[in-house]
């Protein structure tokens, strides 16, 4: 057993920390969050470091798939908020890893090299107004025209984060009778600016690297070649959605939670040594000392959970139980960690000029997004064969 982080990962962390200090000062991260806006120029600079190649094989222009390194990258980016971590995920995970796992040869040849260079962003069009965790009940329809060459899409996707900055919406459509649930679902790559698409923003509290939106599809026509996996994968969307890519998906949002919790602990640790009350630094008051070391201890446990699952994924091993365990454990504990850190800052933890209030807004989304905590517990119980009746 070896818990040492490889030199390559330490180098990656150092490179990213220097990059963020230089290119994305805390004030700018705060400004971007307030405006829920994306800086394509900054993302392009990040891509020059080669990090979007970490989820693309060399034959498609990447540096070879290294899930562990990509997860380290997300953790480091998330320490400076979600303004770069978000788009990175939309490119390297929503885009590259999904296509690598599920795309047709033609889709891989055309899109993976561009994803490796960071030139494309994908948004997820999965949730709907009445469809949350139960994605198999999706109602947005996809109709294959008689000549088999065109898919026509109708309906509304909700919470489609980044639709305004994305090139493609990775859209789950009902391609047959609703009773069939898991059968007759398909995934389609819909160009985000296709005719018939209307995007409206949803004002929201956390993960504000871009607007999250409603996307309304009104007779949106897409070539059947855009069915994920190719025309022959029509009606085969569910196994692609619930397969290995979903396991890795859980790790990516978990890495965001870890990065936010880690920087919250660092900020609180520092603040407690500077703030004086009752004649001493507040880190000298036992209540604050205990809050801080409990937070650090829980953070260490979160890190082990995430990196064990990411290590399994990197080895190409089954990690469906471990990734659900990590998603549940880290999301739940990260909320507790960040709220404890906010308390260390007292009133300043609520001030807009301090990052802590953003950490709180971001972290409270974590047990909800990327498969809610309850859904992770259901997955774990089912995967471990615990009888439900
Ligand atoms: C900031 C943000 C960004 C998002 N971005 C995207 C995006 O880009 N693309 C996208 O498709 N979606 C996105 N979502 C939606 C997100 O994926 C959903 O919120 C999530 O899937 C849960 O769905 P829901 O909120 O509708 O909750 P529901 O599914 O309605 O669940 C409500 C509550 O009931 C619980 N529950 C439901 N079913 C069960 C069950 N069987 N057992 C136990 N408990 C259950 C849930 O855990 C939850 O606590 C985003 C959400 C947010 C907040």
List the helices and strands and how they pair.
Elements lengths: L6 H17 L2 H10 L4 H8 L19 H12 L6 H18 L2 H12 L5 E4 L15 E4 L5 E8 L10 E7 L10 E7 L5 E6 L9 E12 L13 H6 L1 H31 L1 E2 L2 E2 L4 H29 L5 H25 L11 H8 L9 H11 L6
Parallel strand pairs: 1-4
Antiparallel strand pairs: 2-3, 3-7, 4-5, 6-7, 8-9
Helix pairs in contact: 1-4, 4-5, 4-8, 5-6, 5-8, 8-9, 8-10, 8-11, 9-10, 10-11, 10-12
Bound molecules: flavin-adenine dinucleotide.
Describe the structure in your own words.
The protein is 48% helix and 13% strand. The protein is an alpha+beta fold. It folds into three domains: 7-120, Acyl-CoA dehydrogenase/oxidase, N-terminal domain (Butyryl-Coa Dehydrogenase, subunit A, domain 1), CATH 1.10.540; 124-236, Butyryl-CoA Dehydrogenase, subunit A, domain 2 (Beta Barrel); 243-383, Butyryl-CoA Dehydrogenase, subunit A, domain 3 (Up-down Bundle). Strands 2-3-7-6 form a four-stranded antiparallel sheet, with no helix packed on it. It has a three-stranded mixed sheet with strand order 1-4-5. A hairpin with a 2-residue loop joins strand 8 and strand 9 (280-281). The chain is globular, with a radius of gyration of 21 Å. The two termini are 38 Å apart. The model has no long low-confidence stretch (mean pLDDT 96). Bound molecules: flavin-adenine dinucleotide (FAD).
